[in-house]
Amino acid sequence: QELDALSTSPTTSGGNVTRYQQVYQGVPVFGGNLVVSTTDEGGLVAMAGKFSTGLTLSVAPSVNADKASGIAQALVAKLYELQPKQMKVDVPALWVYDEKMFTDSIFGPQLVWRVEVTAAGLPIREVVLVNAQTGKISQHYNEIDTSWVLNGKPGTRKPSGTSANNGASTA
């Protein structure tokens, strides 16, 4: 387990803020990050972060990226009643997802494909975490706040919000 520096930005008070991403065997850990604020001289001002500990899992996927894209697209099509031509699926990226970082859970860390699916003209930017060993949905959520949506729009159904399925298929 290690940290990769993502960015360093100057503060208005003269110090710096550096953001780090937790990685495990070269794969980023979903939600594993650290933010460090320092003075110009390098003295610590503040530090905050969250990490997944004791990781022991294979980072070799059994499900390939193309299959994960198709699973994510099928889920979003079902949730929002869309046709494939209405959606854009970004290139999947491998991540480690440890549900215990976000909620009480009996499930261990999982290797997942993080797939983002959008729909032109609709407030949809659904992040789908597809288990890279089983192909089941581990988690999905819309990154766009749709609490203002009326009458079940976008699409024809009200967005699901955050939905944890713990690897159970919803597609």
Description of the molecule:
With 171 residues, this protein is mainly beta. Helix content is 9%, strand content 41%. It has one helix at 65-80, and strands at 2-10, 16-24, 27-38, 44-50, 87-89, 93-97, 110-119, 125-131, 137-142, 163-164. Strands 5, 6, 7, 8, 9 and 10 form a six-stranded antiparallel sheet that branches. It starts with a strand and ends in a 7-residue tail after the last strand.
Quaternary structure state of the chains depicted = single chain
Strand content: 35-45%
Mean model confidence by pLDDT: 87
* Through-space gap between termini: 33 Å
How does the major sheet shape up?
6 strands, antiparallel
Number of helices: 1
Q: How much helix, percentage-wise, in residues?
A: under 10%
Unreliable stretches (pLDDT < 50, length at least 5) are 154-171
CA-based gyration radius: 18 Å
- The succession of helices and strands, N to C, reads EEEEHEEEEEE
The general outline is globular
Briefly note the structural class of the backbone.
mainly beta
Number of E-state strands: 10
